[in-house]
């Protein structure tokens, strides 16, 4: 793919533009005197009926002709105010487009973006990282970028007693179409008719236009794109499925049968690779005469060194009771309490 045109208001609008681009010799969006290619009339004879049928054949077009027709369609009255974007994925085709537009006296509206995809030029470096899409895969066809704006507008319109910033009248979002400023720091709400008139009055060359393309917010003076405002409105009114999918929390991915079997096989391999603590009797390198059994360790634990510090050892069970000091042999000294004479013994008794 060398070129892609995006930004159509609907699927039907995209099909209209595609048919006009493929059939520039027949489309009514291009005046007959401005057409670069003309239709080739073909005749077909029917031997059964004996009649000759004439129909217009599609002429062959070169790359230069296709780019020239694209330039004409972008300047046509039917498409010039659409928020279209043209992106090239081939550098040589983009250079051909640039040479054509430089020599043309007519220019495309300033709001239509025509650019070269820079990721294609760095394709070799970006292909190594799968997280960085390249070319057409970089385009996001979802409403993910509208999530923040949509969340803000839903919270603002839930509050009752809203009013339009332009006409200062009440605004009921359940009965009227309301637009919300896309600036996150601005909470302005407008009637769709009030904001449309405000944008058209401030847009140069839009005296005969019905739908605006862009404008500035009356409150925060930030630049607003009309298509973004209307897209937010469309999602709130008739995009219930898209909004539900947009705010739906991702589910945890369950393991498949193959993954479960694979993890079980890995556990079995780990258990099989564990070394055996007990030696095998068939191992010739192990001398079982030198191996201590568990009972030998228990006997060693029951042994205790003699108090004299010699080399002899005695079992705990064989120790005499005489070796342990008894409580009766220890003398217990009892301290006698001494009570001294008190001075109250000589006190006189008063009757």
TrEMBL record:
One of its GO terms (cellular component) is Slx1-Slx4 complex. GO terms for biological process: double-strand break repair via homologous recombination. This is Structure-specific endonuclease subunit SLX1 C-terminal domain-containing protein. Signal peptide: none annotated. Residues 267-285 have a biased composition (Acidic residues). PANTHER family: STRUCTURE-SPECIFIC ENDONUCLEASE SUBUNIT SLX1. Residues 163-230 form the Structure-specific endonuclease subunit SLX1 C-terminal domain. SUPFAM superfamilies: RING/U-box. InterPro entries: SLX1_C, SLX1_endonuclease, Znf_RING/FYVE/PHD. Residues 260-285 are annotated as: Disordered. Pfam families: SLX1_C. Gene3D superfamilies: Zinc/RING finger domain, C3HC4 (zinc finger) (3.30.40.10). It comes from the Eukaryota. GO terms for molecular function: 5'-flap endonuclease activity; crossover junction DNA endonuclease activity.
């Amino acid at each position: 793919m060398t070129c892609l045109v995006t930004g159509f208001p609907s699927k039907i609008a995209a099909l209209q533009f595609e048919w006009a681009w493929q059939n520039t010799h027949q489309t009514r969006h291009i005046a007959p005197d401005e057409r670069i290619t003309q239709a080739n009339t073909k005749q077909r004879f029917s031997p059964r009926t004996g009649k000759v049928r004439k129909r217009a054949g599609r002429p062959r077009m070169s790359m230069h002709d296709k780019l020239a027709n694209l330039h004409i369609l972008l300047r046509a009255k039917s498409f010039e105010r659409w928020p279209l974007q043209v992106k090239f994925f081939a550098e040589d085709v983009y250079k051909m487009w640039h040479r054509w537009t430089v020599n043309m006296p007519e220019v495309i509206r300033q709001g239509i973006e025509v650019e070269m995809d820079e990721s294609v030029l760095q394709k070799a470096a970006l292909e190594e990282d799968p997280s960085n899409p390249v070319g057409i895969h970089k385009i996001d066809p979802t409403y993910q970028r509208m999530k923040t704006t949509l969340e803000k507008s839903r919270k603002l319109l839930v509050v009752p007693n809203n009013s339009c910033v332009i006409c200062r009248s009440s605004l009921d979002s359940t009965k009227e179409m309301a637009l919300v400023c896309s600036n996150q720091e601005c909470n302005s709400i407008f009637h769709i008719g009030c904001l449309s008139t405000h944008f058209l009055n401030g847009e140069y060359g839009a005296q005969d236009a019905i739908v605006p393309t862009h404008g500035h917010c009356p409150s925060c003076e930030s630049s607003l794109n009309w298509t973004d405002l209307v897209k937010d409105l469309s999602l709130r009114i008739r995009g219930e499925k898209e909004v539900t999918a947009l705010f739906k929390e991702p589910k945890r991915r369950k393991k498949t049968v193959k993954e479960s079997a694979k993890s079980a096989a890995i556990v079995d391999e780990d258990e099989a690779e564990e070394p055996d603590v007990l030696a095998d009797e068939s191992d010739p390198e192990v001398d079982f005469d030198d191996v201590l059994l568990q009972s030998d360790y228990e006997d060693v634990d029951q042994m205790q060194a003699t108090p004299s510090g010699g080399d002899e050892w005695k079992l705990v069970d064989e120790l005499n009771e005489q070796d342990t000091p008894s409580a009766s042999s220890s003398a217990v000294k009892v301290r006698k309490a001494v009570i001294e004479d008190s001075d109250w013994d000589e006190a006189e008794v008063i009757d």
